[in-house]
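I am still getting used to backbone structure tokens and would like to learn alongside you. Would you supply a protein for us yourself, any chain you care to pick? Start from the sequence, derive the backbone structure tokens from it, and show both lines together. Go ahead whenever you are ready, and we will take it from there.
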Amino acid sequence: MIQLDRRQQLIVLLLVGVILFSGGYRLAQIKEKSSEKVKPALDSAEQNKDKEVTVHVFGAVAKPGVYKVSQGARVIDAINMAGPTGEADLDSIKLAAKVTDGQDISVPSKAGLDPAAVGVTPGTSTSTGTGRNVFTAPAGAKSGAAAANGLVNINTAGQSELDTLPGIGPALAQRIIQYREANGAFQSIEDLKNVSGIGDKNFENMKDKITVR
């Protein structure tokens, strides 16, 4: 058996301590790297959850309501969740646009009655057999809320009359009425764009069919 003097024993103990310290330090590094690999995965899952946005889909859909979609989803994704009806005029919407949190997505319905279906040409008058001529307004205008020229008066029209306008469904018609009740009569037809859900595209489609007189 090798006999070591005190100095040699101290050297051996020092070497053993260095080896143990190095091993422990290396083990700590391995554990730290493993935790770093797990953390990004957890953070990524949490971030994906936070990246959901909330949108309101209404109009010509089977299930209007509030939906959660992933951030970066397109308008068509939200509309498909609500189920577009056969009357939905999807061509008038920017389906490829990205949704934003809190966005209102109004799905317009297709234009009103086809004049050919009732056998009357819009803007003509027909005899009633009583000596009076009755003016037949173009599709999209109704009596009572319509002016003499067949335009829908957005200051007096009810939901059913507003619903006949291109791009306006029952939900959006109700919004127009609610806005009118809260803010008073529209001063110009352009004020209609102040109603949530009515953009420039919708307004262009109906501006020739409405009045505030």
Notes: The chain has two domains: 52-107, 115-211. Strands lie at 52-59, 65-70, 103-107, 125-127, 133-135, 152-153, 210-211. The longest helix spans residues 6-50. The CA atoms of residues 55 and 102 lie 5 Å apart.
